[in-house]
Amino acid sequence: MTDRLITHLRHVDLAVPDFDKQREFYTTLWGLTPVAEENGLVFLAAEGSPEQYVVRLRKDAEKRLDLISYGAGSREDVDALAQRLGTAGVQLVSEPDVLQTAGGGYGFRFFDVDGRTIEVSADVATRQHRRIEEREAIPVRLSHVVINSPDPNRTQAFYEQHLDFALSDSLIHPYAGELMKFMRCNPQHHSMAIAKGPHVSLHHVSFEMRGLDEYMRGTGRLLRAGTRMVWGPGRHMAGDNTFSYFLDPHGNTIEYTTELEELDEDAWHPSVYDVSKPENQDQWGTANPFEELVAKESFNDVDRGLFVAPPV
């Protein structure tokens, strides 16, 4: 196991045209808590997470992924990573400095190989959080983010070389080839995954629930509200986690999950799962069949924010 400078996933920031509708969905239906709001920005926390916020929404004329944020252990680690990336020719969006967003901290931003804006930060103030109670069907924390890439091998190599992510498992199909690579930055099976898609975009954002009962209650709440469920409820083979995928008001795929596998990194060896075998997609056999139309739902729109830093 390597000594990584990145420790965990912090938050995912989205820009949307219909800000009010998106805010209403994520707060009243999905179960996040607004903790700060100003000038077309809202910061949304998960009640069980010490992170200041797990989703940031920003009002913009165009839908885009603003950035993905990861934590580092210290200011020294932030500086070391920025120096490493700069020396390797990775384009920095900003140099390490005090952050002006909720919770403050010290960090910097850069473009990954596909043009996404990535933020790494340390010393962000811990938010007062609480234990999620039995039957309370709201997210405990942000679980993972999955991104689409036309060249998953290139994207994988970038995150392995520059950020010390490690491959946990892969999904393949006999005719389509490699479909997804599950990448970790800590013992959690994946904090990020890279899906093969026709263009660079956000595939889905996943939120951890307290347990199976809360996961199912949350899934039911969304279904009763008429929210479009893309796929689920079921249980994956890779990661051994549950899944219910929905579409938010702007067509981003978001997931309720629970019980994502924790690995012994020193002993772990990646597996390759053939998804033409139904049990490798859904161990339970309860989800709707995974076919081409389901897969296309998570291709999402072409991201208009590539190699363009968000304004805040």
UniProtKB/TrEMBL annotation:
Keyword set, alphabetical order: Lyase, Metal-binding
InterPro entries: Glyas_Bleomycin-R_OHBP_Dase, Glyas_Fos-R_dOase_dom, MMCE/EMCE_epimerase, VOC_core
GO biological process: L-methylmalonyl-CoA metabolic process
UniProt keyword annotation of Lyase present: yes
Ranges where the VOC domain occurs: 8-123, 141-259
Highest taxon of the lineage: Bacteria
PROSITE patterns: VOC
A GO molecular-function descriptor: metal ion binding
Key word Metal-binding present: yes
Pfam families for this protein: Glyoxalase
Protein name: Predicted lactoylglutathione lyase
